[in-house]
Q: What sequence folds into this?
C-alpha cells in the first residue's frame, strides 16, 4: 500500500528549530568540556549524536542543519590550529569528508525507519477505523434482524390468540405511552389504527370500564386480573397476560386472555 503522508511524519512549526539551536549549543558545550581530556580526537562526535537525536524526533531538515552547523563549529574550535579559518590541512579534509558522510548515512537510515513506522501507524489507524465501522454495521444488522424477528413473532402472536386478544398499546423506547392516532396492520379483523394510545381487540368491549381506565393510566408486562363480562350475567375475574414486543416500528404491549 502506497501512503504518501508517510514522509510527513515530522512535526512542523518553530519547535523543531528551537530544538536545533538547543542541540547545537549543548553539543558544543559538551565537546568543550571533553576537550581537555581528548583534545582533537573525534571533534564532531557530539554533533553527530545531536544530529541523530534531532533526526529521530524532528526530521531530516533540522538534522541536516545540526550537521552543517556542527561541522563548522567542530572545524573551527576542535581541529588544530584552533580558532583559525585561514588554515585548511589534512585534518580539516578528513573532518569535512568523514563527518558529513557518516552523519548522512545515520540520519538517512533513521529517516527511512521513521517513515516506515509512521506508515505502519497510519495503516493501523485506517484498519482500526474500518474495523469499528464493520462492528457498527454488524450491530445495526443484528438489531434490525432482531426487530424483524420480533415483528414476525408479534404478528404470529396476534394471529394465534386472535379470539383472546384484548388490546395493543404502543410505547416509546423509554416505556411511556407514545402514539396518538398511530396505525399498524390488522390481523384477522383486529383494528389497530385508532385516534388513541390503545388499539382494541375482539374482547376489548367485554372488559369492565374500570379496568379499561386502569389500562389507560398504565399497562405493564406481566399477569393481570381483568373483569370480563360473561354471557351468563355479571363480570368475572379472568387471568390475562401482557407481553412486550420490540420491533423496528416501536415497542408494543399486547394484552390477551391467558390460556
A:
Amino acid at each position: 500500500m502506497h501512503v504518501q503522508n508517510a514522509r510527513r511524519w515530522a512535526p512542523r512549526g518553530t519547535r523543531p528549530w528551537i530544538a536545533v539551536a538547543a542541540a547545537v549549543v549543548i553539543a558544543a558545550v559538551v565537546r568543550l568540556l571533553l576537550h581537555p581530556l581528548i583534545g582533537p580526537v573525534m571533534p564532531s562526535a557530539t554533533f553527530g549524536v545531536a544530529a541523530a537525536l534531532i533526526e529521530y524526533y524532528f526530521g531530516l531538515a533540522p538534522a541536516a542543519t545540526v550537521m552543517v552547523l556542527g561541522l563548522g563549529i567542530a572545524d573551527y574550535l576542535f581541529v588544530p590550529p584552533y580558532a583559525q579559518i585561514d588554515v585548511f590541512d589534512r585534518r580539516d579534509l578528513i573532518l569535512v569528508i568523514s563527518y558529513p558522510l557518516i552523519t548522512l548515512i545515520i540520519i538517512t537510515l533513521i529517516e527511512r525507519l521513521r517513515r516506515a513506522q509512521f506508515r505502519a501507524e497510519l495503516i493501523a489507524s485506517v484498519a482500526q477505523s474500518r474495523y469499528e465501522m464493520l462492528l457498527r454495521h454488524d450491530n445495526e444488522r443484528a438489531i434490525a434482524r432482531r426487530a424483524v424477528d420480533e415483528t414476525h413473532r408479534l404478528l404470529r402472536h396476534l394471529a394465534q390468540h386472535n379470539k383472546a386478544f384484548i388490546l395493543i398499546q404502543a410505547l416509546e423506547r423509554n416505556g411511556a405511552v407514545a402514539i396518538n392516532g398511530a396505525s399498524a396492520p390488522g390481523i384477522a379483523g383486529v383494528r389497530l389504527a385508532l385516534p388513541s394510545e390503545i388499539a382494541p381487540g375482539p374482547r376489548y368491549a367485554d372488559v369492565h370500564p374500570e379496568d379499561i381506565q386502569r389500562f389507560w393510566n398504565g399497562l405493564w408486562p406481566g399477569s393481570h386480573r381483568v373483569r370480563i363480562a360473561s354471557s351468563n350475567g355479571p363480570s368475572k375475574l379472568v387471568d390475562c397476560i401482557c407481553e412486550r414486543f420490540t420491533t423496528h416500528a416501536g415497542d408494543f404491549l399486547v394484552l390477551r386472555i391467558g390460556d
